[in-house]
Amino acid sequence: MESEVHLLDFGVIVAVLIFVTVMGRRLAGTIETRKDFFNGGGNLPWWVVSTSIIATLVSAVTFISVPAAVFAPGGNLTYFQVILGLAAGKIAVGVLLARPFYESRGPATTYEYIGARIDPRTGELSMLLGLLLGVINSGVKLLTAALVLDVMVGWGIAWCALFVVFVSVLWSALAGIKTVIWTDFMLFVFFALGAVFMLLFIGTRLDQSMWEGFVYLDRQAKLVLFDFSTDPEVRYTIWAGVIGGIALNIAQATTQGTWQRVKACSSSGDAQKAYNWAALCYVVHLIILGVGLALVLFYGENPLSKDFMVVLQESPDRIFPYFLISEMPVGLSGLFIAAIFAAAISTLDSSLTETADLTVRHVYERFINPEASEKQFVSVARISLVFWGAIFLAVSILFSRYSSEGLLNLTFQLPNYVYGALLGTIVLARYGVGRFKSFVLGFLASCLVVILLSHFNIAFFYWCPLSGLTMCLVVWSMERTEIEWSGVVNQEIV
């Protein structure tokens, strides 16, 4: 598939990014302290924070893989179950963590909160694991975004990755989390409207009526929403989607990004509201699912060539970029390419501010210059953004050596070595129980679970955080029982 970007499309991409940059900086206002840079001054509107939460999770891959999950042979709407789980997970985070995080006055990061609620060693080790998780996640997400963008614009993977990193560092450095949240808000509106427009555009190209389209999709078995199968090798089931999606969301809430967005709100009630309303923003995923159905109808009327069908058998993710380039008018295709760029950037800039925050608070302030001025802290934060941007780029290039299949496995597997332990730890910390030993053994146990799930070809890795949580709780309960029994024995001896 030829995929060279037209000059007009390139101009549209640049214009959109410049507009978002300028508006994001103006809306962010002045930056004077670390609180401004990392917590938005604690006065951002909850609805802006809410859209930023979702924009961070909508990646470039979302635009590509979700329609492909419907269009692919045997594909259907069962990804809807995952959307339900993710939406419910956002409400769970709002109920369980938003208010405690906001009302916690001493700690300045998620991991200091864990340290204060359990013990300092647990906080520091969880911080190191969280930092490792951020590097792995960001490297893989950057690579997947670069692969997607390269298919459409043909710049090469390295140049696409460098472009995403450059813009992400620029936006983050302008005003920290303030710029990130405001640009996330604009980008969310942008790609949400883009998804709606794409759905309507494909609809105008169809010859059949809505009812005829519905009948055709039903005959192709594309309208299946729920799968109650208990087969662990089935990718999308109600159990893996809902239960696993909730567990994954709570696990993701252990990252510093959750702390930053909670603290950016003006009250604990607003923080909880931001996460509760974020669940509704998943309607964008439903629209993108609709785009997948529309593509099935369009290419049902306009059959693809046999050669390209062979390509799609191996890589169904190519269907949306193919439509974008071959069917969209010049200029409009640039808008959608810009939307996909925006989705990639909105994911990476959040990771950058998280890691920079941890670097400043856990390294620079603690070990290098505890008496630094607020201006110095902000300067170090901006330097950290450049440093971590380079690290993410290097990791993405390292992972580029893997095949697409290997990359997919990396995307699902590597983060889950950490997610399970962090999920278990944050639950224990929430209720002020647990010890360092339970965290370490829970982490090792969750790693073993991931290895076993991989070995036995368990298809959906949303199960992994839940498994890790279970292991952490089991280890903690065993510890508690051991302590209680030892107390009884000691009393009897005395």
- The CATH homologous superfamily is called Sodium/glucose cotransporter
Strand residue percentage: under 5%
Q: Please state the average pLDDT score.
A: 82
What is the CA-atom radius of gyration, in angstroms? 23 Å
Question: How would you describe this structure to a colleague?
Answer:
This protein is mostly helical and 494 residues long. The protein has helices spanning 7-28, 34-39, 46-57, 60-71, 79-103, 110-117, 120-153, 157-175, 177-204, 210-219, 238-252, 256-264, 268-278, 283-301, 306-314, 319-327, 332-368, 374-399, 404-413, 416-430, 436-455, 463-493. Helix 6 (110-117) packs across helix 20, helix 7 packs across helix 20 and helix 11 (238-252) crosses helix 22. The protein starts with 6 loop residues before the first helix and ends with a helix. Residues 488-494 have low confidence and may be disordered.
Question: Quick gist of this model?
Answer:
With 494 residues, the protein is an all-alpha fold. The chain has 22 helices and no strands.
What are the defining features of this structure?
494 residues, mainly alpha, 78% helix, Sodium/glucose cotransporter
Write the layout of secondary structure elements.
Elements lengths: L6 H22 L5 H6 L6 H12 L2 H12 L7 H25 L6 H8 L2 H34 L3 H19 L1 H28 L5 H10 L18 H15 L3 H9 L3 H11 L4 H19 L4 H9 L4 H9 L4 H37 L5 H26 L4 H10 L2 H15 L5 H20 L7 H31 L1
